[in-house]
Amino acid sequence: METMEEKSERVKATDSLVKVYIKKGQLGNALKAAELGASPQGIDFLVEACIKERTLGNALKAAKLGASPQGIDSLVEACVKEGWFIVAQEAAKLGRRKLSTQEIDSLVEVYIKEGKLSYALKAAKLGASPQGIDSL
User: Fold this and answer.
1) Cβ of 98: how many Cβ atoms within 10 Å?
2) Closest CA to 75 of 104, 49, 41, 37
């Protein structure tokens, strides 16, 4: 059985490995390394790196490993800005919440700007504000 000290050392080593892979631009390998038991801080670092590289699917996978509430909120925000509706919903669920009215309104706005009115309508049905609905 692993002692607390051994576990702490293993987590530190895993976090270091995750950071090395991120610095090398190998996010897939960083994700695999994080699966070995990275700390919430290490996972958040990976989530942020994936967001920066706009690989939001990988960011969601990383967040599922145990991101902090702040890491999850960062992912939701990035998904909303990019118009990644489904991933935004899944990320919000990780934080044990639904998308806020403001986040839904932002999604509606993104979809309108992109000319994706059917997506804007679907997003609005989740609970857009009266102003968000009026923008349609």
Assistant:
1) 13
2) 49
Indicate whether 73 pLDDT > 90.
yes
Token couple for 37: 């038991």
Rounded Cα gap, residues 22 and 122, in angstroms: 35
pTM of the model: 0.90
pLDDT at 129 over 80: yes
Contact 55, 27 (CB under 8 A): yes
Residue that the structure tokens 């919440």 belong to: 97
Residue 136 has pLDDT above 80, yes or no: no
C-alpha span between 32 and 16 (Å, rounded): 13
**46 vs 31: CA distance, rounded Å:** 7
Distances (CA, A) of 62 to 3, 26, 134: 26, 14, 36
- Letter for the amino acid at 90? E
What average pLDDT does the structure give for the chain?
95
Within a 10 A sphere around the Cβ of 75, how many other Cβ atoms?
A: 29
